[in-house]
Amino acid sequence: MDLKNWIRDIPDYPQPGILFRDLTPLLKAPEAFNYAVDSIVERFRGSPIDAVAAIESRGFLFGTPVALKLGLPFVPLRKENKLPPEVIGVDFDLEYGSGRMEIRVDALEQGDSVLVVDDLLATGGTAEAAAHLVERLGAQVLAMSFVVELGALNGRALLGDHEVHSLITF
């Protein structure tokens, strides 16, 4: 299945000069959504993963079913002030702004191997922040998986030695 057929381009959103890759058509089509989730699951089935962490908010849409199908704990990486204390956080830059991401201090164990999932890799700032949070808890990022990667923005370069897996690259 060519998942690019399920991605809609929206020019100048959320601001002029940005080409937004809209995944809602993929989410609306159960066969395409399931195919995307199964593709991530099959890539990492049998890997030494202890947990799946996903980035709020659209990463939750893919990370949760991936965790369920792999039989692993799900760890939410949330926007600021969305998790009860005690949390640690990190500030990061986005393609068109900035943000802060947090994780509960008890979300992972020392030495855990983690798969980080998000819907889209653009400049890499959000994914880099996610890896930083995982590592601050003493866990390690085994890999990062994205449904869509915007190759021209070179976000992969910001992620250093982390394995990056993308279903679609534009």
Explain this structure to me?
The protein has 170 residues and is of the alpha/beta class. The protein is built from 5 helices and 9 strands. The strands form 2 sheets. Strands 5-6-4-3-7-8-9 form a 7-stranded mixed sheet, sandwiched between helices. A two-stranded antiparallel sheet has the order 1-2. Strand 3, helix 3 and strand 4 form a beta-alpha-beta unit. Helix 2 packs across helix 3. The chain is globular and about 40 Å long. The chain starts with 7 loop residues before the first strand and ends with a strand. 35% of the residues are buried.
Tags for this entry?
single chain, 170 residues, alpha/beta, 7-stranded mixed β-sheet, two-stranded antiparallel sheet, 5 helices, 9 strands, globular
Query: What percentage of amino acids are in beta strands?
Result: 35-45%
Question: Alpha-carbon distance between the termini?
Answer: 16 Å
Largest sheet: 7 strands, mixed
Low-confidence stretches: none
In helices, the fraction of residues equals: 25-40%
Arithmetic mean pLDDT: 96
Net shape: globular
Q: Order of strands across the widest beta sheet?
A: 5-6-4-3-7-8-9
Written as H for each helix and E for each strand, in order along the chain, the element string is EEHHEHEEEEHEHE
Radius of gyration: 15 Å
- Number of contiguous helices: 5
Please specify the SSE layout and strand pairing.
Layout: E1 8-11, E2 19-22, H1 24-28, H2 30-44, E3 51-55, H3 58-70, E4 74-79, E5 87-94, E6 97-104, E7 113-121, H4 125-136, E8 140-149, H5 155-158, E9 163-169
Parallel strand pairs: 3-4, 3-7, 7-8, 8-9
Antiparallel strand pairs: 1-2, 4-6, 5-6
Helix pairs in contact: 2-3
